[in-house]
Specification:
minor pseudopilin epsh fold; alpha+beta; 2 helices; 32% helix
Length: 172
């Protein structure tokens, strides 16, 4: 009697388990890397947005752009001279805004690309303290300087980005 050998064209159960295990491990590692990357990007985007608003205030001071509500007053004795722009950062509310100072009055300026006065920093990103960064129209002086603003991601491990305003007015 002649024995007929069968050739198997498939995979064994062990080979399939090993292949799925390797694919699972690679998927978990890539997902963790993606989550870390997206969190880092979120904090980085908020830091870039803050730098953009600070640079906007600086450019408005340098060009001496007055808001329309700064140029008109019903009372002729009211001084409506533009003296400075400020970026006010509120830690408790986790937000910031752009303000023009005209004759001692504070005028809220909507942040460009939005109708909102405040820019709300999304949770779980937080700012480390309250800040008021002033850009003087006449002297061009930025105060207080140097200032370092820290944005913290509320994840573990924490992701930290800093925005620095140097004494020469550069913002990085």
């Amino acid at each position: 009697m002649k024995l007929i050998k069968r050739k198997s064209a498939g995979f064994t159960l062990i080979e399939l388990i090993v292949a799925f295990t390797i694919i699972s491990i690679l998927s978990v590692i890539s997902f963790a890397a993606y989550v870390s990357f997206s969190r880092n990007q979120a904090v980085g985007n908020e830091a870039n947005q803050l730098v953009s608003v600070l640079n906007l205030a600086k450019s408005k001071v340098q060009s001496q752009v007055k808001p329309s509500s700064c140029t008109t007053s019903l009372d002729p004795l009211v001084n409506r001279t533009l003296t400075e722009y400020r970026v006010v950062i509120e830690q408790a509310n986790n937000q910031y805004k752009l303000v023009a100072v005209c004759g001692g009055s504070l005028i809220n300026i909507p942040i460009e690309g939005s109708s909102s006065i405040y820019h709300k920093i999304p949770s779980p990103i937080t700012v480390d303290a309250n800040y008021t960064i002033s850009f003087n129209v006449l002297s061009g002086v930025v105060s207080p300087t140097p200032t370092t603003i820290t944005l913290n991601g509320g994840w573990v491990p924490s992701i930290v980005k800093t925005v620095t305003i140097n004494s020469d007015g550069t913002i990085q």
